[in-house]
Structure formats: C-alpha cells, structure tokens
Amino acid sequence: MSSPMLDVRALNKVYAGRGDPVEAIADLSFQVSDGELVCVVGPSGAGKTTLLRCLAGLLPATSGDVALAGEPVTGPPQGMAVVLQEYGRSLFPWMTVAQNVELPLKEKGVARGERSRLVGEALEAVGLADVGRSYPWQLSGGMQQRVAIARAAAYEPQVLLMDEPFAAVDAQTRFELEDLVRALWKGLGVTVVFVTHDIDEAIYLGERVLVLSARPTVLLEDVRVDLGAERDQLETRGAPEFARLRTHVYELVQQAKLGVRSLADARLTHAG
Amino acid sequence: MSEGVAGVVEPAPPNAPGGYAARGRRPLAHRAVWLGTAGVVALLVVLQVVPSTGLVNPDYLPPTTEILAALADRVQTPEFWVALGDTLLTWVTGLAISVVAGVVLGVVIGMVPFLREATASTIEFLRPVPSVALIPIAVLLWGTGMQATLLLVVYASFWQVLVQVLAGVQDVDPVASDTARSYRFSVLARVRTLVWPTALPYVMTGLRLGAAVALILTVTGEMLIGTPGIGKLLAVARESGAVPSMYALVVVTGLLGVAVNLLARALEHRALFWHPSVRGEVAA
Amino acid sequence: MTAAQATAPATAQAATRQATPRRTAWGVVRSVLYAVGLPLVLLAAWWVATADSESPFNPPLSEILATFGPTWFSGDSFADTRFVQDVLPSLGRLLVGYAIALVLGIGLGVLIGAVRPLRELAEPVLEFFRAIPPPVMVPVLMLFLGVGTSMRVFVIATGALWPILLNTVEGVRGLDPVLKDTARAFRFGRWGRVRRLMLPGASPQIVTGARQALSIAIILMVISEMFAARDGLGFSVVQFQRSFAVPEMWSGVIMLGLLGVLLSFVFRVATAAVLAWYHGYLRSQRGGA
Question: Where's the ABC transmembrane type-1 domain (chain C) (predicted)?
C-alpha cells in the first residue's frame, strides 16, 4: 500500500452551540490510498456530512488530524474538489453552465486557453457538451448535478469529495450518474470519497465501504468490496457477492441504528 | 421606480428568508445585543468627543450631552407634544387614505384583465413622478394647511400600496380561481376567500413601505410648506439658529422612523403568522 | 433558497409581462392601444376641463403646454436657457450624489454584510440612520456646507446611501450557505469572493436598494433646492409659485415629472441586463414549485 492520499487520525468533532455541546464524531481513523474510491455509509444522523466537511476543510475538527497527501488540512486544501448534495444551490445561478465550470479554474489562475479546453472536456465527459450556454436553473435536477460533477472534474483535483450527491435525483437518473462517477474515477485516476445513505449505491460504487455508527460516530467496519473493476447496473447488482455484501452492510447499519458502537457488539444473524 | 425607503428590503413574497423567526433562532443572539449596544454607545461617545475637542466646530455639531439637554427641554413644552400629535395625525391620515384607496383600486383593477392592461402604462408613468414636484401646486391650493402635506403623503405612499396589491392579486393561483368560478362563487366571495388571502402578504409589504414613505413626506411637507408638526419645529429651530434643538428634533424624527418601521414589521409579522402561505413554506 | 428570493413581486411581475410574446399584428396594435389609451383619455379630460378655466390656479392645459417651451428652452443662446442653466446642473448634482451613494453603499454594505461581528456592531446604528427621514438632513448639512453645490450633492449622497447600504448588507447576509461553501471549497480568494459571489449574489437586493435610493435622491435634489438655494430646478419651480407664475409653475411640475419618469426608465434599462438571470431563475422556481 502506498502512502495514503487521505489520512484521518482520531478525528473528533463537537458542536458547541448555545445549548449543550453535541458530539457529532467521537473518534474516527481511516486512510484512503491514492486512486481509491471509498464510500461512506451510516444511519441517518451519523455525522456523514460533518465528516465530509471536516475532510474538505470547511469545518475545523475539535481534535485529531486530517491530512491530504501528507499535508495537514486546516482550510479547504488545494487539489480537492467537493460535490454537494444540494446541486441546485451549489451552482451560481447568475452564470451559465460553462461559466460555472470555468469559475474555479479562473480563481485557480488557469490560463484562458487551458480553461476552455478543460471546460469543454469536462462537459463532454458528463454528456452536457451542448448546454454550456444554458443557465443551471434551465436544466433538470440530474443535469444540474452533472454540471456540479463537471465543475469538480475540470478542477483536476487529487481528491474528489461527494456528499450524498444523488440523494435528490430520481432513481433512473441516479443509475446513470453512478456509472458516470465510476467512469470519471477511472478516467481521471482521482481519489474519491463518496458519502451516501444508500447501501446499494455504496457497494456498487466503492472499492471499500466505511460503515459508520450513529452519532457520536465511530467506524463500525471497513468493508472490502471485491466486485471487480468493471461494474454493471444489472450484472453487478445481480451478483451473489453483491447480495452478500448488501446483507452484511444492511445488518450493520440496522445495528448501528440500535446504538451498536463496535463490530464485536453487532449481532449479525446472516453469516457473511 | 417608486419612492421607497432606506433599507426596507423590498417586497418579499411571503416565503422570504431571513425573517424575524429565523433571526430569533440564531445562536449567539445575545452577542448581537451586546455588540449592537456597544455600537450605539460608541456612536454617542464619538459624537460627544469630536465637538468637545474642537475637531468639528461645536456650533455646527453640538456634543451629545447638549443635544440630549435640548431634547429634554423640548419634551417639557406642550408645543412639542402638539407638534408630535400633528405629525402623527397627518401621517396616519395620509397612510390610511393610501391604504384604503390602494387596496380597493388594486383589487378592482387586478381582478379585471381589461382594467389591468388599460391602466398599466398610466401607472408606470405616474409612479416615478416625484411627489415633491406637487409641492407648489399643494401650496397654491391649500396654503400651509394639512391638506397640502396630505397630498404629498398620499401621492407618495399610494403607489407603494397599489403596486403591491396588483402584484398580490396577480399571484392568485389560476387553478383555485377556475375552481371558484366553476362553483359559481360570487365576486365578493371570490375576493374574500381567494384574492384577499393571497394578496394579504403583499398588502402588508405595501403597508410597510408606504408607512415609511408617508413619514418622510409628512416631515418634508412640514419643513417646506409649513404645515404644523415636528418638521415645522425643525425649520423654525434652524431659522432661529437653535442648533442643539435642531439636532434634538432630527433625533426625534429618527426615533419616529424607527417606531414606524418596528410597528409596520410587527404588524406584518403578526398578520402573516397565521397565513397559509407561511405555513405552507414549512411543509415545502 | 438563494438571496434571490427576497425580491419584489412587483419586479418579477414586470418581467413576466415583458416576456409575454406578442406575435400577431393585431396583438401589437392592441398593446399600443392599451398603452396610450388611458393617458390620452386623461389628457383630453384635463384639456376639456380646464379649457375655459379662469382660475389663476388652474390654467388651461393648452396654456401650460404653450408655456413649457419658452420657460425652459428660450434664451439668447441654448447655453442661456433655463434647461442648461438650472435643469442640467440639478441633474448633474443628482448623478454625482447618487454615484457616491452607490460606491459607498455597495462597498460598505459588502464589508458589513460579510463580517458578522461588524454587522452586529453596526446594525442598530444603521437602523437608526436609515429611519431618519432624509429631508431633515438638509438643514443639518447646510450648517456645515452652506447652500452651495457641495451641500446639495452631499444631501443627495447621504440620503441615498442608506437604502443601498442596508439592502446590500441584507443581500450579502442572505447568500445561500451552500454557495458560500462552494466558493470556499474551491479556494476563491477574498477579492474573488466579493466579485464572483457576493456582488452577483446580492445584486437583486442591491438593485432594489438602488431603485429606492434613486427616488429618494430625486426628492432630495428637489427639496434641497426648494429649501435653500439660488438656482436649480427645484428653486425655479418654487420661484414660479411664489411669484404666481402659475403656467410656468405647472410646466416646472411637468419637467420634474418627466425627469422622474426618464430616470426610472434609464434605471430599468440599465438594470435589466444585470438581473436577466434572476428573472429567469425566479420563473423557473415558480414553475418548478
């Protein structure tokens, strides 16, 4: 295993509001290697979004460390792009699709010619080459999320963080977008951390699935997914190994909902 | 363009964010109170120190303490309270006329497509005519009487209300409107059950904007035309060189303005609290 | 919900109306008739009602219109006309004062809106200043600046400042947190955040504030000259009234009215492009809801 691209050690996050402090993340440690695609699942309210915001440098950790390629993350680091769940709100409504994709590149200081090449390629890759001049609000939800993905891809990040990006799109669009993420991941050789509440999605997409407990969050299990490099919505989801993993992760998440906080305490009725 | 007032964030449809409820829930709200108080105190101290140290001629800008002393003197005179009453009377009369006329005309014009189309250009033309342009006419017609100032007040605030009401009536859900028609609701029933509830948030916005504009024009009329009220006292104070007194009256008009804003917003909030469109937002 | 949502229904309405396609020739004729019909009827009514008027206060409309040209556009040369001597300087002061208010209001508004402690510190003070009816600042500023040009420009600037400032603060404060996170995650610089996030994001509110400020600026232009000045459009109109030159006075009222209408038209054209995205966005939100 090469040195980790993303290194999370003893991460702890406590929200200190006006009322009682809320411990969102108790203690999380894990690593993601360069070029891996890791999914994070957990029961709702498991602090998944908190974790992702800490990774993205949008939220300071209370204690513990997050490092990207060996560099500690204190603010949003260079070489990281984020795709958020609220696609409609993460796109700048006063800009066209192409301008939205181009904007972070401008801020990064990429030269004009290079910018238009990257924008063109990214829109092509997500299948939106012909809507560059439209405004995001003229597009359907699934297309808007494609724009957000194109924007992240054009940024050429080392690490791509995705926070439940498909939670608000319809089921069919969702399958297409999942395949798009797999294709981009392979094409760009980028490291991806994909947060989702959908167990099937996590297994279908990931090389590994991190299963989180309910809050305050700890890591329940780091599940390897051996479904091969090529995934197919019908074949993969029909495979016995997929079914086995699905059952296992499903049971873990159910146990997590009941408050189980370690794999040893989990009562799994279906042998894996 | 219509005459609006500083900072009144315009016309919000009922689901506008950042309302009072949202503010109240903000954590650290107590910090805002402390900082806000600190800001006011800092302003008062600066206004005290700057003239006292001669940085600014105290003849032009008296120290805070002198202004407050002048204010204390003023509020002990019956003249001040009569003037305040006059100002409030002109303001509330003008506003009432505008609101009644604006709502009635707005509903009638808004509900009849022919009227809406026929009046659109006239409204767009008359609305930006500055009401102060009417000052000479008002003076010729009524001298320094209250009617002269009322004309300005009504002209300025009427458009605020009318335009909002028109927008509100247009906002009525066409499906609901068709349904009401197919059940052969009478016109009055349609107004009561359909148009009025939809337009109410807009009416309240118009009321809030109109109230602030009405106050501006009330004071303006008093200053320029000489209609009795706080504005006239201010003009008199200026002519007699009573500078601290003048500042004291400026402060009074500012406090009046704050009171009008708070009152209008509270009324708006109350009226919309039970409103279905507000409850609908929570569900959505 | 973006900043966008705190808008004028009235503005949105206007946009919808403009967007209505008028395809047929009859449609064009119809809309022209609708546009000019009522104004013509009203003017005709005024004309007829005052045709035989003997009242000194209510001169016939024909007389007012006949006075309009000579009052504003007669002189030894064009440079000598009242239009050049009084109207244009007033307009110039208005524009300079308004421009100052725009720059200061947007600049300070972005700063105060973006820095929360600063906002909390300044908010009550700003609330008070915006509540002061701007005209009462005329006598105050006269103390410092006399009755000259600088006083009038300053009055306009200080009066028009508050709507712009407070709406900008509100617009920047109400920016969608998801957009703010996006800008942060992509490491926008400070200036990038101002230019590419805050200014465009707050533009609907800024335009609303600027529209309110323009009407206040016009009011202040007129009354600063009515109250204390020896030249300017407002002064001329009051002079006519005091000397009972009633038709001239009416022509002045009309001049003021035309100026107001013209400025509001220019404002609308100038801001239409800035807010084109916003009207489309609003429509898509309504349609999608």
Answer: 87-271
Question: In C, residues 48-67, which contact B (CB 8 Å cutoff)?
Answer: 57
State pLDDT tens for residues B23-82.
334 455 688 888 989 999 999 998 888 888 888 888 888 999 999 999 999 999 999 999
Q: Over the stretch C113-171, which tens digit does the pLDDT of each residue have?
A: 999 899 999 989 998 998 999 999 888 888 888 888 888 999 999 999 999 999 999 99
Q: What is the ipTM of this complex?
A: 0.85
| Domain C-terminal end among A126, A156, A186 | A156
Q: Does B284 touch chain A (CB under 8 A)?
A: no
Q: Model pTM?
A: 0.84
pLDDT given for residue B18 in this prediction: 34
Instruction: Chain B: give the shortest CA distance to residue A106, in Å.
Output: 31
**A:26-55 residues touching chain C, CB 8 A cutoff:** 53
CA–centroid distance for C10 within its chain:
16
Report CA-CA distances (Å) from A256 to A42, A125, A184: 8, 38, 32
| Structural domain C86-283, CATH architecture | Orthogonal Bundle (1.10)
Instruction: For chain B, list the domains and their CATH numbers.
Output: 80-283 (1.10.3720.10)
